[in-house]
Amino acid sequence: MRLTRFTDYAVRVLLHLGAKGEAQSSIAEIAELYGISRNHLMKVVQDLGHAGFVRTVRGRGGGIRLGRPAEEINLGALVRQTEDGFQLVDCSDCLVAGACTLPRVLNEATAAFLGVLDKYTLADLLGRRQDLRQIFGLAG
């Protein structure tokens, strides 16, 4: 299984915001930090905002911060939000589709993958918060 860049960027945004704590960040700041497209990151942040993972404030003095405590941001829920789907193969035109059990096996594997992610939160990824703050160039 391979996650999209969209999900990768979403995790990066949440890691940065979680390391930063209550202080707001800007999309430009995060995009520059990671060396990624500001426009693409805006789409990611918009999606995270609609799902409640981040809180966005527009205008002067605005920015983004976590929408809920890191302990309440489940990684499985995040991946389900940011990925379009989990169909690993398209069996619609396959000759053996009626007799093949591969889709059932792949569905079971996907459920196991998501089940593991469901056990973890953003807080688990922030276990070395001080190290992340140092990498991000954040004071203290």
From TrEMBL:
Keyword Cell cycle carried by entry: no
Keywords: DNA-binding
GO molecular function terms listed in the Swiss-Prot or TrEMBL record: DNA binding; DNA-binding transcription factor activity
Keyword Transit peptide appears in the UniProt entry: no
Superkingdom, natural source: Bacteria
InterPro entries assigned to the protein according to its UniProt record, in alphabetical order: Tscrpt_reg_Rrf2, WH-like_DNA-bd_sf, WH_DNA-bd_sf
PROSITE patterns: HTH_RRF2_2 (PS51197)
GO CC terms of this entry: cytosol
PANTHER family xref list: HTH-TYPE TRANSCRIPTIONAL REPRESSOR NSRR (PTHR33221:SF4), WINGED HELIX-TURN-HELIX TRANSCRIPTIONAL REGULATOR, RRF2 FAMILY (PTHR33221)
Stated name of the protein: Rrf2 family transcriptional regulator
Organism: Phenylobacterium montanum
Lineage: Bacteria, Pseudomonadati, Pseudomonadota, Alphaproteobacteria, Caulobacterales
